[in-house]
Amino acid sequence: MIQDSSKVWLGLEYFCYEGDDLWGKSAAEMASLDMGELVKIGFIAKSEDVLDYTVVKVPKTYPAYFGTYSEFDKVRDYLDPYENLYLIGRNGMHRYNNQDDSMLTAITAVENIRGGVTDKSNIWAVNTEEDYHEEGKKN
What we know:
Order of helices and strands: HHHHH
Strand content: under 5%
Helix content: 25-40%
Radius of gyration: 17 Å
Number of helices: 5
Largest sheet: none
């Protein structure tokens, strides 16, 4: 996704409601918040390390599981061969994962990248248990 392999592309995602304070922030305010968070958690050393940013606000982005959802395997079959593209989390995988599972798909993707693993089946294997639901976890 980036031309210079010595650079890193990173996407951050915030959940909010249209019209709330977070939604109302300008692109510059969001970028400042993002960089501050990345510094705070030690992901980057300083805000000046960020070379560029883009802020995209997408209303009503929660995945919808109707219509052609049963055909999602066709999308996956088409996209999985792209070695530098990883579909992760609820929106990337169009799967109702809880936040822990969504983060686990991201962690697994990073481990794959670091290990030179191009097969993505371990990412798709996260949260495939049929008996798991947010309201009635059977653990």
